[in-house]
């Protein structure tokens, strides 16, 4: 269960979540990108309440390492996922 999460990421800033297994990183990211709805409170991105498909067009999200193509470089993986959505 996540409680009292409140943070801001400045325009152009890259933000990473680190912590031990089971600490809520994946749960938080799922709520941020709209894959899971909070049971209380809300998530806002770019001044819009999530989930909102227009928000997803303006943010980047990369799942855990096993979601990457190991035969591609990091840049090539990003370009590949970019083509999936554009």
From TrEMBL:
<dbReference type="InterPro" id="IPR003439">
    <property type="entry name" value="ABC_transporter-like_ATP-bd"/>
</dbReference>
<feature type="domain" description="ABC transporter">
    <location>
        <begin position="2"/>
        <end position="77"/>
    </location>
</feature>
<dbReference type="GO" id="GO:0005524">
    <property type="term" value="F:ATP binding"/>
</dbReference>
<dbReference type="InterPro" id="IPR027417">
    <property type="entry name" value="P-loop_NTPase"/>
</dbReference>
<dbReference type="GO" id="GO:0016887">
    <property type="term" value="F:ATP hydrolysis activity"/>
</dbReference>
<protein>
    <recommendedName>
        <fullName>ABC transporter domain-containing protein</fullName>
    </recommendedName>
</protein>
<dbReference type="Pfam" id="PF00005">
    <property type="entry name" value="ABC_tran"/>
</dbReference>
């Amino acid at each position: 269960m996540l409680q009292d999460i409140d943070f801001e990421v400045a325009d152009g800033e890259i933000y990473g979540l680190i912590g031990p297994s089971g600490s809520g990183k994946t749960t938080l990211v799922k709520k941020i990108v709209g894959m899971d709805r909070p049971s209380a409170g809300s998530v806002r991105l770019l001044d819009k309440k999530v989930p909102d498909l227009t928000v997803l067009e303006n943010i980047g999200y990369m799942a855990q390492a096993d979601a990457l193509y190991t035969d591609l470089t990091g840049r090539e993986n990003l370009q590949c996922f970019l083509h999936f959505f554009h």
